[in-house]
Amino acid sequence: MKKLINRPEDVVTEELRGIEAAHPDLVRVNYGPNYIVRADAPLQGKVALVSGGGSGHEPMHGGFVGMGMLDAACPGEVFTSPTPDQMLEATKAVDGGAGVLHIVKNYTGDVMNFDMAAELARGEGIDVESVVIDDDVAVQDSLYTAGRRGVGTTVLAEKICGAAAEERRPLAEVAELCRKVNANGRSMGMALTSCTVPAAGAPTFELGDDEMEIGIGIHGEPGRERRKLAPAAEISRELTEPIVSDVPFAEGDEVLAFVNSMGGTPLIELYVVYNELNRLLSERGIRITRNLIGPYITSLEMAGCSITLLKLDDELTRLWDAPVKTPGLRWGA
Amino acid sequence: MHDGVTVSYDDVLRWIQTFAATMAEQRQYLTRLDSAIGDADHGINMDRGMQAALAKVDGLADGDIGALLKTVGMALVSTVGGAGGPLYGTLFLQMGMATTNKSELGPDDWRAALDAGLQGVQMRGKAEPGDKTMVDALTPARDALSAAVADGASFDEALRRSAAAAEDGMQATIPLVARKGRASYLGERSAGHQDPGATSSYLLLRTAADTWGGAAAPTDKEES
C-alpha cells in the first residue's frame, strides 16, 4: 500500500485537522464525536442541512460545508457510515429553530444510522426530515435489493437545497425540493482501477490491466459487468444510455451534466468524456445548460469516472447558480 | 457457568471479553469475507467496536447484566458505523432490555434475551431469513435454543445446539443471493460467498457456548 498517510487509524482525524487548519473562515471541526459545521452555525431561522457518510469521497461531504450548501457533515471511517451520536450532535449544533434536513445516501448503514439519529433528535424536540438519495442506475431498484445507491446526484442536491435554505424556505419545502432533485437526477460510474482502504491495506477488488468495471459503486462495489477496456467514446455511451433512458430524458430537455472523477482520473480525461457526453446528448436533442467537471464524489485513488445528469427547470437552474462558499465548491460569493 | 444452570454477571462479562478477542483474531478473515460481497470493513469495524465496548464495561461493577449488555450496545452504536453498528448495537441493547436488573441468567432468560435481540435486529434492518444477513445465523440459533429449552436440555447442551444451528445457518448463506445490505447490489454475483454478518453472529454464539459451556469440566479449563 502506497499512501501519503501516517498511521491508517489516524487518517480521518488527521484529515479533519487539515481541513480545520486550512479553512477556519468557513468551517469549525468537532472531535469525538466528529463533525464539521459552518463557522457561523447555527443560523437562526434557517433550515439546516446535515449530511454525512464514510470518508474517502472527498470533497464530499465535509468539503461542501459552508454558505449556500451544508450546515454540517459527519465523516465516518473510510467507506463506513458515521454513527448516530455524531449525527445527533451535528444536528443539535446547527439547528437554528427552523428544523434540520438530513440528506442520506442510500446505503444500508447510512440509512439505519441516520434513522437512529433522527429518532434521537426528534426525541430532543428538533424537527428533522430525511431524504434518501438513490440515483445510481447501475443497480436494479427492486424488492430484492436495498434499492439504488446514492451517488453523484447527492452533490447536486446539497448545492441546490443549500441555496433554497439560504432563501429561508421552510423545512417541508426544502425537503420536497430535495426529493425533486433526486427524482430528476441519475448517475452511473465506471472504474479503471481498484482502490485501497487504508485500514484494509489491500485493494478492495482486483481488476486486470486490460479490464474495467462498468457500473462501479463509490466504495468499489462491483457493478453491472466487468469487461475489456474500451475507448472513451464507447465507455461514455455505455454510461450515458442507461441514464438517459431511465428518467427518461427527452428531446428538448435542459440538463446539468456532471462528469466526476473517481479520484485517480485527471481532468484531461474528464474533458474527453465530457466531449463525448456533449455529442451523445446533442444527437438526442438534449441541451447541457450547466455543467460540473472534476473530482467531487470520489473513491479514494480509484481511476474512473461517473456521469450524472439532472433535468433542470428555471427553479433548479436559479438555485444552482446561487452563491456558494465552501472548501470544495465556490462561486458568486 | 458456576453450576450449569445459570450464568453470572462475571460469566457474561467473560463472554463479552472473549467475543472482543475473537473479533480481533478474526478481523482479517471477516474483512476478507466482506470484500468479496460488501465493502471490506466488517472485521475492522467489529474489532474497533468491541475494543470500545471493553473500555466502557471496565468501569461497570454493579452486577446488572442488563446494564452490561446495554453498555456494550451503546458502545457499538457509537463506534462501529456501517450497518454493523446499528444492527449489533440494537442486538445488544435489546438483549440488555430483556435482562434488566438480572444478576444471573437461566436458559429461559438467555432464550428471551436472544429472541429480543433478534427481533430488534429485524426491526432495524428489515431483513427476513434467507436474505443473506446475520438474521440467517441468529434465527436458527434462537429456534434451536428454544427447542432445547422446551426439551429440558441442560443449559450447556442448549448453548451447543444453538451455536451449531448458527453455524449451519451461516454456511447456508453461501449459495444465497443477497436481498439486503450492500451485497444485494451484486444480485446473482453474491451467491457463492459466505455472509460476513452471519459469520460474526455465529462467532458471537460460538463464544457464548465455549465461554459458558462445559459445566461438568474442571473449573480451571482454558478455552482452546
Describe the protein.
Chain A has 2 domains: 13-183 and 320-331, Dihydroxyacetone kinase, domain 1 (Rossmann fold, 3-Layer(aba) Sandwich); 185-315, Dihydroxyacetone kinase, domain 2 (Hypothetical Protein Tm841, Chain: A,domain 3), CATH 3.30.1180.20. Helix content of chain A is 32%, strand content 23%. Chain A has helices spanning 11-22, 84-94, 108-123, 153-166, 171-184, 232-244, 267-283, 314-321, and strands spanning 27-30, 35-38, 48-55, 72-78, 100-105, 128-133, 185-191, 211-214, 225-228, 254-261, 287-294, 304-311, 324-325, 330-331. In chain A, the strands form 3 sheets. Chain A has a 6-stranded mixed β-sheet with strand order 1-2-4-3-5-6, sandwiched between helices. Chain A has a 6-stranded mixed β-sheet with strand order 9-8-7-12-10-11. In chain A, strand 5 (100-105), helix 3 and strand 6 form a beta-alpha-beta unit. The radius of gyration of chain A is 19 Å and the shape is globular. The relative contact order of chain A is 0.15. Chain B starts with 6 loop residues before the first strand and ends in a 12-residue tail after the last helix. In chain B, helix 1 packs antiparallel against helix 3, helix 1 packs across helix 9 (196-212) and helix 8 packs antiparallel against helix 9. Chain B has one domain (7-212): Serine Threonine Protein Phosphatase 5, Tetratricopeptide repeat. Chain B has helices spanning 9-25, 27-37, 42-57, 65-79, 84-98, 107-125, 135-151, 155-172, 196-212, and strands at residues 7-8, 104-105. Classes of the chains: A alpha/beta (333), B mainly alpha (224). Chain A binds chain B through residues 33, 54, 76-85, 107-109, 112-113, 115-116, 139-140, 143-146, 149, 197, 199-200, 204-205, 217, 219-222, and chain B through 31, 35, 38-41, 44-45, 48, 77-87, 124-125, 177, 179-182, 184-187, 189.
